[in-house]
Amino acid sequence: MRLKFTKMQGAGNDFVVLDATRMPLALTPEQTRRLGDRRFGVGADQILVVEPGGRPDVDFRYRIFNNTGDEVEHCGNGARCFVRYVHEHGLTDRRSVRVETLNRLLELRLQDDGRVTVDMGPPEFEAAQVPFDAMGLAPRTVGGGVLWPVPVDGATVELAVVSMGNPHAVQRVDDVDTAPVPTQGPLIEQHPRFPRQVNAGYMQVLSRSRIRLRVYERGAGETLACGTGACAAVVAGIRLGWLDARVDVEARGGELTIEWAGEGHPVLMTGPAETVFEGEIEL
Length: 283
Ligand SMILES: N[C@H](CCC[C@H](N)C(=O)O)C(=O)O
What we know:
The protein has 283 residues and is an alpha+beta fold. It has 4 helices and 19 strands.
């Protein structure tokens, strides 16, 4: 099958974007892995498939696959690239677009400066909803939130656990550059207390309005930025009393801004989204 694709990136988190608005596209996990493969394919952290909305109040659906071939619930950087994509490919001329993922309905807005603001939907802190098996653990209350003491590789790591539609486990570290992301990240990602695995975040608090963040992503491993991970870190930090309602997040690949006024308010993420190149591939 000959396939047209667009390579995009949002703060260094990179994607292969495919248009399935005119003709259904059913990729096998092997084909998805091939697209994500940085040597035998195009190379990307995730693969995004743009589909028709299917309902009057939904402009598009967008499906997200990690480069492992697994379909996932949400991708923040991908959402920003998605809205740039539908504009650049003439699929809409609306600056505000409603899009449905596996389990969320998102409102995306293309700003005049080219950045994109996404209403990422509400965070979910209830352990069972993340899902996280908290059985037998005594959480430590910090501010208005909790940290869970989770045994990892012989040590105890204090994790803030939150879902942004996809699962996140965030810990505070003194310096993200020296954090054990490559070694401890996969152990948290695959930890048995996360039945659907988890994205492992490492947050360094620079001030109440600025953090540095590294994320060992479920499936893709460490990425240069993780949009849902930035949201998860900020909302957890706000609840724990460490952060204010608007935070700039320094990821390795770029900067995101997250805003959350607390329970009952949307989590807004603003950041860059760029097309890198267009191409065709024989799958
Ligand atoms: N690896 C994530 C999906 C991509 C999320 C990330 N790329 C983002 O920007 O939110 C997961 O398995 O939940």
